[in-house]
Amino acid sequence: GAVVSQHPSRVICKSGTSVKIECRSLDFQATTMFWYRQFPKQSLMLMATSNEGSKATYEQGVEKDKFLINHASLTLSTLTVTSAHPEDSSFYICSARKRYQETQYFGPGTRLLVL
Amino acid sequence: DAKTTQPTSMDCAEGRAANLPCNHSTISGNEYVYWYRQIHSQGPQYIIHGLKNNETNEMASLIITEDRKSSTLILPHATLRDTAVYYCIVRGGFNTNAGKSTFGDGTTLTVKP
After folding, report:
1. 3-class DSSP state of B63
2. Is A50 on the interface with B (CB under 8 A)?
3. Taking a C-beta distance cutoff of 8 angstroms, is the pair B48, B74 a contact?
4. What is the DSSP secondary-structure string of A30-64?
5. Residues 6+ apart with CB under 8 A from B97
6. Tell me: the pLDDT tens digits for B19-69?
7. For A6, how many CA atoms within 13 A lie in the half-sphere containing its CB?
8. Collapsing DSSP states into helix, strand and coil, what is residue B54?
9. pLDDT of residue B112
10. Distances, alpha carbon B13 to alpha carbons B20, B57, B78, B112, in Å
């Protein structure tokens, strides 16, 4: 199989604090990981692409200083939402892709609520 | 990535085949057709993908037209648990900058008893 996990599954934080979300590929090495955001009743929106050992590539309109992405190993990528505000409340989903393969496998998502 | 067009919603009777269409008229030669589905409040689940030939796995069949401008995902015997949003995505290979998945609005499939 190809299992991707995320932690935490849901988090509530106060406005102004930072939140870290982890994405792990459990049974394969993920050379590329993707981070998406999904607002209620909307489709997934790609935020950034990260390759192991290099800086993430952010999509247009996504602030790299606000959404810090680290892909430190072949099984772990982290997304840190810095100085979170209520408008950052959303469903954050990661996906991972194996080396030399096409298919992306998605994590179960992390629901963030900023009060 | 090529743009895809899917119907907003479809209904299907339980036990019958669900046929979900997708148009991707601007697909280029090295782009794959991928299908994912998302059950409410979960991450997307990979279903199937193909390049030129029709594909079948334990979940579904993928029929790609000869000109590759459209495809159909077939769930042979739909169950209530197949109720989800189905996304058709066209993207380049892993070795291209277009190897990321861009999601459209998808088709909301409702399987009814």
Report:
1. strand
2. no
3. no
4. EEEEEEEEE-TTS--EEEEEEETTS--EEPTT--T
5. none
6. 999 999 989 888 899 999 999 889 999 999 999 999 999 999 999 999 999
7. 28
8. coil
9. 97
10. 14, 22, 7, 5
* A47: contact with B, CB 8 A cutoff: no
Q: Which residues contact B64 (CB under 8 A, 6 or more apart)?
A: B33, B50, B51, B52, B53, B54, B70, B71
Cβ-based interface (< 8 Å): residues of B facing A = 32, 34, 36, 38, 41-46, 49, 87, 93-94, 99-106
| Cβ distance of A106 and B49 shorter than 8 Å | no
d(CA A84, CA A21): 13
CA distance A17 to chain B (A): 25
Do strands B32-38 and B18-23 pair parallel, antiparallel, or not at all (unpaired)? unpaired
Q: Are B43 and A44 in contact (CB under 8 A)?
A: no
Distance of CA A43 to the CA centre of its chain: 15
Most confident of A48-52, A58-62, B96-100: A58-62
Is A103 within 8 Å of B34 when comparing Cβ atoms?
yes
CA–CA separation, B91 and B100 (whole Å): 7
Cross-strand partners of A96: A33, A105
Query: Nearest C-alpha of chain A: how many angstroms from B73?
Result: 17
pLDDT value at B98 more than 50? no
- Comparing CB atoms, the residue among B41, B42, B94 nearest residue A102 is B94
